Amino acid sequence: MTTTYRPLAASCDCGSNRMVVTAAPVARFICHCEICQAYTGKPFSDVTVLRARDVDMSAARSVVYRKYRLPPNIERGSCHVCGKPVIEFGLAGPAKLAFLPTGNYADTSTLPPASLHMFYHRRVSDIHDDLPKHSGYFASQLAVVGLLFGGLTAKAKPSEH
């Protein structure tokens, strides 16, 4: 049985940068690190993770990228017009990933639920949900790598007929 994916529209707050997501996200998580707080201007960042090739950026014309700190080697793109987050990219080559703020989607009803909180020790306030909350650099990174690995390997499995 082949499942078709209905592409999803996304954009920055002002609409200057529009994107089309052509495949389902491989994961979704909530990050409380200080870099995400600075980047988003919010207490945390709720992001979906996709293969970069699954995001059509042809209508995104005014994105300015910045690296806040190494590692990880994440390029964070903000709109040159409104200054709000547009998209982030990490890794390179065929493994290149896109991190799209969940709030940038026009319709979030078909997105997967968030799976975990990372860098929870940097939270601005407590979050009362049932998601796993990972604190510390290594525990947070390990949790997200496991989440991404699981999502990417599930997408790589051939469809059953």
Give structural attributes.
three-stranded antiparallel β-sheet, seven-stranded mixed β-sheet, glutathione-dependent formaldehyde- activating enzyme (gfa), alpha+beta, globular, 161 residues
Describe the protein in words:
The protein is α+β, with helices and mostly antiparallel strands and 161 residues long. The protein is built from two helices and ten strands. The protein has a single domain, classed as Alpha-Beta Complex (glutathione-dependent formaldehyde- activating enzyme (gfa)), CATH 3.90.1590.10. The strands form two sheets. A seven-stranded mixed beta sheet has the order 6-7-8-9-4-3-10. Strands 1-2-5 form a three-stranded antiparallel beta sheet, with no helix packed on it.
